[in-house]
Amino acid sequence: MNWADPIERNVTNKFVDRKQAYPAKRTPDSRRADFLEIGAPFADDAARAQAGRCAQCGVPYCQVHCPLHNHIPDWLRLTAEGRLQEAYDLSSRTSTMPEICGRICPQDRLCEGNCVIEFSGHGAVTIGSVEKYLGDNAWENGWVRPIEPGTPTGQSVAVIGAGPAGLTAAEYLRVAGYEVEIYDRHDRAGGLLIYGIPNFKLDKSVVDRRVARIEEGGITIHRGVKVGKDITLAELRERHDAVFVATGVYQSRELTVDGADKDGVVRAIDFLTASNRSGLGDEVAEHADGSLFAKDRDVVVIGGGDTAMDCVRTAIRQGAKSVKCLYRRDRENMPGSRTEVAHAEEEGVEFLWLSGPASIQGETRAERVQANRMELGEPDADGRRRPVVDPSSSFALDADLVILALGFEPEPLPAIFGEEGLDVTDWGTLECDEDMMTSLPGVFAGGDISRGASLVVWAVRDGRDVAEKIDAYLVQQRNPSAAAA
């Protein structure tokens, strides 16, 4: 192939001739020494070569299984042809943060896991790496366009939460002509993109440039504002024509075994937030006193999702003496990304499959975890085989730092916001109708607070969808007769 030709036709469907290839990873030894992203960027020719493996399927399962329904085969073809700006423009039509999703989406469970050539045994197109390449390349070349506000409507929208759902909704609403103000409890915008996901997966500069673009587009972000304390939901409803609740879910599930309340047993979100704050240059008292720092500690992380993977890999980089992950199901049934597990194993994490905690032991603080072997029994309501304790097997692990990565639940927003009329489901998520509106007129919800703990890409999808719903609602509010007609 002549890579110098900017537009070369008939360059796709090359999956038989070309092997699957990802960007080169740094060695495990070098990765353990810092929090830099672990992969090198694709070189131009490598990105085009991998994009050219796409079979251009008549029914693109990669696109079907992407929550955003990104036009994946189309921008892969454009990439293979060297039409990189067009490829980025197409990827950004359906996603407000393609280079972020390219970094952190579990592609092995979504687009790449459903790639037709993966089924044929040739290895999926490395879609996520190409998406990341397109986004980064667009920023470097000045192809990322500023937000262009639409014709002013005279109406405004409040967004509660500056995470992926809130930022996405704000952008689409601004383009539709609305004044948008975001209210976030943290001192930085980005939500879990900033404080939940480690730098080795998502460098914070990648998030910061998206946030800067949001503000340059005329969207106001009020940082350090807690709704329910600094301002009430009722006041926001009075001040704005609609409200979008995109707070995410940050309440950690509890471990219900003896000793779970001992010193040295910490929540994953606290551990990761402290680490990210330190990486951002903040003074973190919990690092200084060692309560949320893994150096020279025997660390046991309990859980098997992506948050658990973030914790074990962070502990390795902080210089832990040993890092073990305790998970009650087997490798095939874990919820976390298979790719992340492989990265963790390369970096020195030991996984104890089919193992669950029975108690946390120690005098006043954690010293060891007493655990049981597990067996997989009958399927539960979700179809996953239920873990059952094997009573004949028990073992102990040295652990003076135990990190609980058991998932997240919604905070009690009606009580926090002082709005008892805000209905919730049996799971504590905000109850919404088909238009994503809560029980309070003009108050909408999306992302994890309405769907439960999920992926960033689903939050982006909800932000995109809710902007359309809010727009339709506000059009009706300012012109009821036309809407009725």
From TrEMBL:
The keyword Cell membrane is annotated on this UniProt entry: no
Keyword Glycosyltransferase (UniProt): no
Record domain Dihydroprymidine dehydrogenase: where: 32-142
Domain of life: Bacteria
UniProt entry keywords in alphabetical sequence: 4Fe-4S, Iron, Iron-sulfur, Metal-binding, Oxidoreductase
Sequence ranges assigned to domain FAD/NAD(P)-binding in this UniProt record: 156-463
Alphabetized NCBIfam families for the sequence: gltD_gamma_fam
PANTHER family membership: GLUTAMATE SYNTHASE [NADPH] SMALL CHAIN, GLUTAMATE SYNTHASE [NADPH] SMALL CHAIN-RELATED
Name by which UniProt lists this protein: NAD(P)-dependent oxidoreductase
Phylogenetic lineage: Bacteria, Pseudomonadati, Pseudomonadota, Alphaproteobacteria, Sphingomonadales
